[in-house]
Amino acid sequence: MAEDKAKDMSLVDEEVDTRDIPLLPPQQQRFVQLYLTGQYSLSKLAELLDVHVNTLYKWLRRDDVKQAIQEYQDATHEIVASEMKSMTLQAVKRMRELMNSPIDGVALQAVKDVLDRTGHKPKQQIEKNVTVKTFEEKLSDLIDDVIEGEFEEVD
Question: 10, 25, 35, 130: which sits with the fewest CB atoms below 10 Å from its CB?
Fold first, then answer.
């Protein structure tokens, strides 16, 4: 058990960003970092941090912990958005290469993707004319069918 815990902690040390989260004690900083990786359940985090799982639930309700989590998420979002924007030019260049592909299917799909993403997607709309009868109309039709059926049998 102790061996498994040491193994888990060594893996965690390699995976987690070691930025300090201000205004929290070290153990809570570590909790926030591990919690935000999304890799561990609260029970596993409690085991890794040598605290009871109820302690983690209490920490999650604290305003300072909530604020630290929000700040960390905001910073991560900014980093991801920046990285995505930096890849845009490379993606456009690659799309241009694919449009000039000697394979017609690849070129066609690239052209469609460019047109779709620039607002020139063809409308995908199905029109259907449906007449909806009210309950009274359905009842009237049913009565008419029954009456017509009876007269046909009599004739």
Answer: 130
Please name the amino acid found at residue 36.
Answer: L
Domain ranges of the chain: 2-87
Furthest C-alpha separation in the chain = 96
State the pTM of this model.
Answer: 0.48
What are the tokens at 3?
């061996």
Residues 8-27, mean pLDDT to the nearest whole number: 58
Dig out the tokens for 34 from the structure: 């591990």
SS3 126: coil
CA 64-68-69 angle, to 5 degrees, is: 120
Alpha helices in 16-134 (DSSP H): 26-37, 42-49, 53-61, 63-99, 104-117
In CATH, the architecture of 2-87 is Orthogonal Bundle (1.10)
